Amino acid sequence: MIIDGKLENVKRPGKSFIFDTSKELSERNQMHYEALCEAIDEHVYKLLEEEDLERLPVPKASCSTIEFQSFIYASKDSLQNDKLIILVNGCGAKAGQWSRHTIIHDNFYYGTQISYIREAKKLGYGILVLNINDNFRITAEYMHSIPGSEDGYEHLSTVWNDYVLDCKAKNIAIIAHDFGGDCIVQYKMIFGEKFKDRVFAIALISSMRLIRWKDSNLEDVIKTWDNKLDLKVKRVKTSKNRTFNCLINENNRENLPYLCMTPVFTYIQSKYLLKNDRKLSDGSS
């Protein structure tokens, strides 16, 4: 049960849910944790559908049955809108989530992407919600990798080629958390200018420790939010000796997506206006 964003103990109304991690019951705890995570995943998927997002298969065309396909969520205008925001989750989280840890132990809505989706819709963007950790299915005998979604990199590549490549959006912004940031940078390195022509802003949250900046060549569209203990602001040098600011907030990496949502969207809007003002001054469409 969720009360004011907190998971509540159904056996003790009014008491917050606390996950028991006692060593004596480690095997049972793991089973309970996995069951809890599955329940959270399904509830978040329901919330995405309540936000009028629909599930799309990954790959788009597959010989596999639905049970052995991955999927993303998309707003109904995602492939027709001139503006598109792509949300990329990080390690361990499924579509619509930033952090399972935050959902379970802190605040359900801090750990989901719902507030980002609502803000993106309010600003007139189409939305794609990726699912980079949905990589396999387990049957009674085997663990089966999902073709086209074997890992986060393959998932992103498949989604881009199947859905983004031919969509109408000329203005694409990407918001990625944790490992999702590395997937984005690696993908850009492979596709170069074809990627950069349409992507005007990339917001990376808690991704700095994973990114190989020397080869990324993304300094003109990228901004990173990270948190370090006892620091207010950190300026980071890039391979071209440029610098950019990192927002430093509470010493809680899992909560950072929620905490920095306002400056993330401020950055995206400023980059969008800059790109389109430049187009107008150049006389291009």
3D architecture notes:
The chain is α/β, with parallel strands linked by helices and 285 residues long. It has one domain: Alpha/Beta hydrolase fold, catalytic domain (Rossmann fold). Helix content is 34%, strand content 21%. It is built from seven helices and 13 strands. It has a seven-stranded mixed sheet, sandwiched between helices. Helix 4 packs parallel to helix 5. It starts with a strand and ends with a helix. About 8% of the residues have low confidence.
Summed up, what is this model?
With 285 residues, the protein is an alpha/beta fold. The protein has helices at 26-50, 100-105, 114-122, 152-164, 179-196, 256-259, 261-282, and strands at residues 2-3, 6-7, 53-58, 70-75, 83-88, 126-129, 136-138, 143-145, 171-177, 199-205, 222-225, 233-237, 243-247. One of its GO terms (molecular function) is siRNA binding.
Provide keyphrases for this structure.
285 residues; alpha/beta; Rossmann fold; 7-stranded mixed beta sheet; 7 helices; 21% strand; Arb2; siRNA binding; Arb2_dom; UPF0528 protein CG10038
Strand content: 15-25%
The coarse overall form would be: globular
Strands across the major sheet, in which order? Answer: 3-4-6-5-9-10-11
Provide the number of structural domains: 1
CATH superfamily: Alpha/Beta hydrolase fold, catalytic domain
- Class derived from helix and strand content: alpha/beta
- Tell me the total number of β-strands: 13
Radius of gyration from CA coordinates: 19 Å
Q: Distance N terminus to C terminus?
A: 50 Å
Low-confidence stretches: 229-250
Helical content band: 25-40%
Helical stretch tally: 7
The helix-strand sequence is: EEHEEEHHEEEHEHEEEEHH
Enter the CATH topology name.
Answer: Rossmann fold
Q: What value does the average pLDDT take?
A: 80
Q: Which CATH C-level class is it?
A: Alpha Beta
| Major sheet | 7 strands, mixed
- Looking at the overall shape, the CATH architecture is 3-Layer(aba) Sandwich
GO biological process, one term: regulatory ncRNA-mediated heterochromatin formation
InterPro entries: Arb2, Arb2_dom
GO molecular function: siRNA binding
Organism: Dinoponera quadriceps
